[in-house]
UniProtKB/TrEMBL annotation:
It comes from Fischerella major NIES-592. Residues 8-210 form the Phosphoribosyltransferase domain. One of its GO terms (molecular function) is magnesium ion binding. Its cofactor is Mg(2+). PANTHER family: ADENINE PHOSPHORIBOSYLTRANSFERASE, URACIL PHOSPHORIBOSYLTRANSFERASE, CHLOROPLASTIC. The lineage of its organism: Bacteria, Bacillati, Cyanobacteriota, Cyanophyceae, Nostocales. GO terms for cellular component: cytoplasm. Binds 1 Mg(2+) ion per subunit. The magnesium is bound as Mg-PRPP. Allosterically activated by GTP. The gene is upp. This is Uracil phosphoribosyltransferase.
């Protein structure tokens, strides 16, 4: 795996993730926890943003103070539909980020992703991109999303999820070894339906209460 997989072990994230995994956790609580964790993930994924100094005036003195170097805001790309949960949390911390959406559904028989929607900022080629989806399971959707995003030539791409399966990481890193994966946990395996075990169930259903 090398340095490509960044496992975020922060105790607050781990504790909140355990609450999310519990079958009895309500939709409202699940949504709230995902938002909280996503703010913490946003903190980690933006750790290497470049800074520059700007001369400002405090009430007491002038100061050369650090501000973000790039005048082009980050783009957060949500893989629909469950990516919305991470997007909402990240926007709390980075409210001026730009947003893109990619709609992919998994064909339930083949597990192959089919694109049905794609909308990103027109000048994405000048921006850094963070793609978000809570579950890196087979990796098919993530691989397809990154492939599609690469065709728009952004400055950089990172992928952020909550949970990853070893199979998904293996698949993703083989095809996109240049894209770092940020995840809060690497679980045991996939089941025969492509669900992460032990996992947390269907992230979209739990987030939106559709089951
Ligand atoms: N998508 C989910 O929502 N959950 C899984 O376990 C795998 C893919």
């Amino acid at each position: 795996m090398g340095n490509q997989v960044i496992l975020i072990k922060h105790p607050l994230i781990q504790h909140k993730l355990t609450l999310m995994r519990k079958a009895e956790t309500s939709t409202a609580k699940f949504r709230f926890l995902l938002k909280e964790i996503s703010m913490l993930l946003a903190y980690e994924v933006t750790r290497d943003l470049q800074l520059k100094c700007e001369l400002i005036q405090t009430p007491l003195a002038p100061m050369n103070a650090p501000v973000l170097a790039s005048d082009k805001k980050l783009v957060i790309i949500s893989i629909q539909r469950a990516g919305q949960g991470i997007l909402d949390g990240m926007l709390e911390l980075i409210p001026s980020a730009r947003v893109g959406h990619i709609g992919l559904y998994r064909d339930p028989k083949t597990l192959i992703p089919v694109e049905y929607y794609f909308k990103v900022p027109h000048d994405i080629n000048k921006r850094d991109v963070v793609i978000v989806d809570p579950m890196l399971a087979t990796g098919n959707s993530a691989v397809a999303a990154v492939e599609r995003l690469k065709s728009t030539n952004p400055q950089s791409i990172k992928f952020v999820c909550l949970l990853a399966a070893p199979e998904g990481i293996e698949h993703f890193t083989q095809i996109h070894p240049d894209v770092p994966i940020y995840t809060a946990a690497i679980d045991e395996k996939l089941d025969e339906h492509g669900y992460i075990i032990p996992g947390l169930g269907d992230a979209g259903d739990r987030l939106f209460g559709t089951k």
